[in-house]
Amino acid sequence: MRYPLEKMAQLYIKEVVKLHGIPTSIVSDRDPRFVSKFWQELHQALGTKLKLSSAYHLQTDGQSERTIQSLEDLLRACAMEYKGSWDQLLPLVEFTYNNSHHSSIGMAPFEALYGRKCRTPLCWFQVGESALVGPDFVQETTEKIKMVQKKMKAAQDRQKSYADRRRRPLEFQEGEHVFLRFVPTTGVGRV
């Protein structure tokens, strides 16, 4: 669905600002809507620094790219599991992601944001108990969240294996000479 810029600004206020306030900085992709003069002026008026990412640009640390790849992989797996109705699972994917442990911050994003763990049906019972009490909706939702958790773990493991293939432990001593390789990319602007 394509939204006009004014509608996107309203959604931004409704979905981001209402929950988290005005961020000091945002890393965004280079979609034409996000590089428009309107979007840049909106963030300038709000006092937010807009950082644009790309695969070849060093404004992001690579962690954002890995996260995006993992989420794409997860959404693709969920879409296949539920025969294309991924939009119905999107809130559960978001919930699962925000309540899973992230090694970079040492906790779940929900916990980092609110200072407490999220209360969820997944932790109301001891591990190993399979009985869930309550409406069928709660049980179905819990099962869907467990499925999303498994898919997310698989997606993260897959992305980690891709990264580990190219990773080598390197240690250099002071005074050693090293060869740096620089590959200029075409079509990428410099900031």
Characterize the structure shown.
It is a single chain. With 191 residues, the protein is mainly alpha-helical. It is 50% helix and 4% strand. It is built from 6 helices and 2 strands. The chain has helices at 5-20, 37-46, 63-81, 86-98, 109-114, 136-166, and strands spanning 25-28, 49-52. The protein has a two-stranded parallel ribbon with strand order 1-2. α3 (63-81) packs across α4 (86-98), α3 packs across α6 and α4 (86-98) packs across α6 (136-166). The radius of gyration is 21 Å and the shape is globular. It starts with a helix and ends in a 25-residue tail after the last helix. Residues 124-130 have low confidence and may be disordered.
Furnish the topology, listing elements before pairings.
Blueprint (H helix, E strand, L loop, with lengths): L4 H16 L4 E4 L8 H10 L2 E4 L10 H19 L4 H13 L10 H6 L21 H31 L25
Parallel strand pairs: 1-2
Helix pairs in contact: 3-4, 3-6, 4-6
Structural class: mainly alpha
Report the biggest beta sheet as strand number plus sense, adding barrel if it closes.
2 strands, parallel
Tally of strands: 2
- Terminal CA distance reads 31 Å
Query: Count of DSSP helices?
Result: 6
Report the helical percentage: 40-55%
pLDDT < 50 runs, ≥5 residues: 124-130
Based on CA inertia axes, which overall geometry fits? globular
Radius of gyration, in Å, reads: 21 Å
Kindly summarize this structure in a few lines.
50% of the residues lie in helices and 4% in strands. With 191 residues, it is mainly alpha-helical.
